[in-house]
């Protein structure tokens, strides 16, 4: 069964709020760089950049950090996960990196993405922004900015759809039987 | 999609989707080599053995760098310093190497079919780094990547491969690869270096270099193996160079935006003039850069997933 938990309007509001929270917490926006985890985290990063531009009038450098080569399940999974885009637009030394993903679940992707990032330099700090936190963490990782907390069971699947990729913008929960 | 193979032995048995998967993976890997820290932890704990029965600098170094940038441990065995000179058979060498539990053996051998035979002896992955006059798949893949990068796509391009077709594993692998991707391939060389029946691989064959060059989008020059010259495939090097060497004059027959490839090492002034080799249309050094990315992709796709049961 499919249930829409966030529609386009609510996603837009959540991103606006996150943009404000980022600016509230980071007093020097010029020091920020915003990096999304492909595929959907990258598109969310671009949306957040636009929001921040509208609010503050600064255009932050934005890019993508692909965690694939740093995953802890390579050689365990049956398939080789396809590589995505790695695009670190500026030297991140001394910058505050806002890392963006669509769904925070086990925390393993975020761990891998942080390791990937460390190979590019020593950021002043890394802050994590996610559209959905669905719980069930397997690592001690927590988000700094959350669009919506959605308590789920592990048998459910949370998907973020974005118009750029999926033709429609929404967050849906699929329950086990139609997975 | 996953590359479901233990070994990479040649281009001949690769499906179109497999070639495309390797090329797109290699495109992503290029970025790693541009970093300040050129290393990812992906193949940590894997052991890759380079077993080279023929001299090689570029290919062996490229495989070694690819392995190291993926955090695998690379060990080089060259025949001159190995027990092969003491009379050990290939099978015994293979079994002994396997007993040290490597994850992949990269093999180059003067005899066609050696990698296939080796793959049957060992449970780990085998990558063909050139076998006799048969195949050199990683070279063809890096050639395809270089052309794809510059031209956008390969389908519909005219590819001219010129030189010693008979002894060239590079030519064979590239004929398979480029025709599978939808390009038109024409091979040209002196009659003594043109194997009978080469057209059955799906290419056109000619001894007339001008007709091969006419309208070509890509010209791939093959190295003349001067060490073979004692077998007299052509009268003199000067004559070969005059008829089949690529210079700016001959190149005018090709398309204006033609690109030049050469698997190296080049013999300047023999199969290719210096102006052409160093000219703006030459992508010879891009090929070398792409070689590392292609080999990283090969290792990732062969070693990056769980092993099938029973292997």
Which secondary structure elements does this structure contain, and how are they paired or packed?
The complex is a heterodimer of chains A (179) and B (311).
Chain A: E1 2-6, H1 8-25, E2 32-36, H2 40-56, E3 62-64, E4 96-104, H3 108-118, E5 125-133, E6 145-149, E7 157-161, H4 163-166, E8 170-174
Parallel strand pairs in A: 2-3, 2-4, 4-5, 5-6
Antiparallel strand pairs in A: 1-8, 7-8
Helix pairs in contact in A: 1-2
Chain B: H1 16-29, E1 47-52, H2 58-69, E2 73-78, H3 90-98, E3 104-109, H4 114-121, E4 125-131, H5 137-151, E5 158-162, H6 169-180, E6 184-188, E7 204-206, H7 209-213, E8 218-221, H8 237-244, H9 248-251, E9 259-261, H10 274-277, H11 284-303
Parallel strand pairs in B: 1-2, 1-3, 3-4, 5-6, 5-8, 6-7, 8-9
Helix pairs in contact in B: 1-5, 1-11, 2-11, 5-6, 5-11
Structure description:
The complex is a heterodimer of chains A (179) and B (311). Chain A has helices at residues 8-25, 40-56, 108-118, 163-166; strands at 2-6, 32-36, 62-64, 96-104, 125-133, 145-149, 157-161, 170-174. By secondary structure, chain A is an alpha/beta fold. Chain A has one domain (2-178): Rossmann fold (3-Layer(aba) Sandwich), CATH 3.40.50.2020. In chain A, the strands form 2 sheets. Chain A has a 5-stranded parallel sheet with strand order 3-2-4-5-6. Chain A has a 3-stranded antiparallel sheet with strand order 1-8-7. In chain A, helix 1 (8-25) packs across helix 2. The radius of gyration of chain A is 16 Å and the shape is globular. The N and C termini of chain A lie close together (9 Å). The relative contact order of chain A is 0.21. The model of chain A has no long low-confidence stretch (mean pLDDT 95). Chain B is of the alpha/beta class and 311 residues long. Helices cover 36% and strands 14% of the residues of chain B. Chain B is built from 11 helices and 9 strands. Chain B has helices at 16-29, 58-69, 90-98, 114-121, 137-151, 169-180, 209-213, 237-244, 248-251, 274-277, 284-303; strands at 47-52, 73-78, 104-109, 125-131, 158-162, 184-188, 204-206, 218-221, 259-261. In chain B, the strands form 2 sheets. Chain B has a 5-stranded parallel sheet. A 4-stranded parallel sheet of chain B has the order 2-1-3-4, with helices on both faces. In chain B, helix 6 links the parallel strand 5 and strand 6 (184-188). In chain B, helix 1 packs across helix 5 (137-151). Chain B is globular. Chain B starts with 15 loop residues before the first helix and ends in an 8-residue tail after the last helix. The mean pLDDT of chain B is 93. Chain A binds chain B through residues 66, 69-70, 74-80, 82-86, 115-116, 119-121, and chain B through 2-3, 24-25, 28-29, 31-32, 35-37, 39-42, 300-301, 303-306.
């Amino acid at each position: 069964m499919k249930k829409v938990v966030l529609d386009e309007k609510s996603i837009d509001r959540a991103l606006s709020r996150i943009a404000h929270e980022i600016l509230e917490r980071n007093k020097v926006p010029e020091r920020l760089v915003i990096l999304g985890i492909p595929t959907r985290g990258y598109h969310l990063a671009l949306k957040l950049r636009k929001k921040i531009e509208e609010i503050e009038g600064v255009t932050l450098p934005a890019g993508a950090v692909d965690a694939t080569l740093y995953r802890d399940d390579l050689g365990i999974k049956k398939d080789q996960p396809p590589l995505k885009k790695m695009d670190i637009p500026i030297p991140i030394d001394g910058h505050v990196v806002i890392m963006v993903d669509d769904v925070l679940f086990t925390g393993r992707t975020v761990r891998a993405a942080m390791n990937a990032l460390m190979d590019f330099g020593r950021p002043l700090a890394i802050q994590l922004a996610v559209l959905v936190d669905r719980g069930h963490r397997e690592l001690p990782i927590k988000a700094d900015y959350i669009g919506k907390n959605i308590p789920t069971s592990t048998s459910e699947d949370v998907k973020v759809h974005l118009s750029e990729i999926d033709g429609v913008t929404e967050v849906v929960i699929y329950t086990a039987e139609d997975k | 999609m996953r590359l479901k193979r233990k070994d990479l032995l040649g281009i001949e048995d690769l499906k179109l989707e497999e070639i495309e998967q390797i090329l797109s993976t290699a495109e992503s890997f290029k970025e790693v080599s541009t970093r300040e820290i050129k290393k990812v932890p992906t193949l940590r704990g894997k052991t890759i053995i380079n077993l080279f029965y023929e001299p090689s600098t570029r290919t062996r170094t490229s495989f070694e760098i690819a392995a190291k940038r993926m955090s695998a441990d690379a060990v080089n065995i060259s025949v001159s310093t190995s027990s092969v000179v003491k009379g050990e058979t290939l099978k015994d060498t293979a079994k002994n190497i396997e007993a040290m539990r490597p994850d992949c053996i990269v093999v180059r051998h003067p005899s066609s079919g050696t990698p296939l035979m080796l793959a049957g002896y060992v449970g780990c992955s085998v990558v063909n780094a050139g076998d006799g006059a048969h195949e050199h798949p990683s070279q063809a893949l890096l050639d395809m990547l270089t052309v794809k990068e510059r031209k956008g796509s390969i389908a519909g391009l005219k590819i001219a491969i010129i030189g010693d077709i008979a002894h060239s594993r590079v030519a064979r692998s590239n004929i398979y690869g480029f025709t599978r991707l939808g390009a038109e391939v024409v091979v040209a060389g002196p009659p003594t270096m043109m194997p009978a029946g080469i057209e059955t691989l799906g290419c056109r064959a000619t001894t007339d270099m001008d007709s091969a060059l006419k309208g070509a989008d890509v010209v791939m020059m093959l190295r003349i193996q001067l060490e073979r010259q004692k077998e007299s495939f052509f009268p003199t090097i000067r004559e070969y160079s005059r008829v089949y060497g690529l210079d700016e004059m001959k190149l005018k027959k090709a398309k204006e935006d033609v690109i030049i490839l050469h698997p190296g090492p080049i013999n300047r002034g023999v199969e290719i003039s210096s102006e052409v080799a160093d000219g703006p249309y030459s992508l010879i050094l891009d090929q070398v850069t792409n070689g590392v990315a292609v080999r990283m992709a090969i290792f990732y796709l062969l070693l990056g997933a769980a092993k099938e049961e029973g292997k």
